Task: structure prediction
Amino acid sequence: MHLLYNVGIYLYLLGIYIYSLFDPKAKLWIDGRKDIFNKIKATVNNEKIAWFHAASLGEFEQGRSVIEKFKEKHPDYKILLTFFSPSGYEIRKNYEKADYIFYLPIDTPANARHFIEIIKPNVVFFIKYEFWFNYLNELKKKDIPVFLISGIFRPSQHFFKAYGNWFRKQLNCFTYFFVQNTISKDLLNSIGYNNIIISGDTRFDRVFAIASQKKAFPIINSFKGGANKLILAGSTWEPDEDLLFEFIKLKLKDIKYIIAPHETHPERIIKLKEKLGSDVVLFSEANEENVADAKILIVDGIGYLSHLYQYADVSIIGGGFGKGIHNILEAATFGVPILFGPNYKKFSEAVELISLGGAFTINDKDEFLIKMKELIFNDAERNNASLKCKNYVINKVGATDIILENISF
Result:
């Protein structure tokens, strides 16, 4: 099975090389790893290293609170952060809390040996569900402690299938599993692992910190004005926006809109602006004069959305008509009622917030219009949903402290 795994890795690499001829993101993936070992050798010194690995931006945000508290608690350690995906690395390559930031070389046996020989980590944290087995085996050989943080396991994963014996054995490489929920713990118990603590989800600590240390945007106050309700559509794709356009067409008074699409490259922003017509201002071009009379503000940059939810009365989170919803906790922490499409069932926070009455799923235009009107015009319903969201986050904080109190290395 190890041979098949390695063959799969090399085939994946070949596929990325071919795809990079046509796809800019795949090209970034390849280019970012060019001469990677010489870059690491030239940068990393013989120091105490805590290595954190995140697949992409979402996993980074999931582990961010642990990185920052670890840094506070162990100032003598250097933080080395790696990413698998360009969508994480390119956005966070200048993250000030990490001392070294690199793409992770692809998981071949030689790469794993070489990488670990160079950085010589003292402790390693993989975030959520990163299982690179050559890296894990090399770390195990060198007796380096490895922790999975905010881990989540599902019955559909290889570990729990009849053919999954080899995959199950690789979990021996983890010193401890810090998992999000009881289901994950029970699944690991069922295959013989007991080195588990239910710590919860570190994203709650991150979004709670955002709400506690929120950044002010005076331009948004000018845009919203004193009497308007604000609908914020975050991390949207075209199907999400098409529903919102139907609501905008109603031309209801005293409502303004912010749209923050998931992709912000120029072609995407131009197309979105053309669809919306007049009364639209780009965030990058906004000033006190042009936002006051604008109806719609398009966020055409990265890094703002999590703080903009503080101004919203209702939020729409994208992805629910595609592969799955994006981060709903950034809205929930500010007590903003949330709507999203039907593909949410893999996300426990969405399931739980729906049951509590803080979030709502919609399947089509008619459901969307009805629920939007209820939340905008029924103050009691909106305020109740707002309270449910805010209390939900408050009651879930603390995973970061549980992890840091229970690691030893």
The first helix runs from residue 2 to 19.
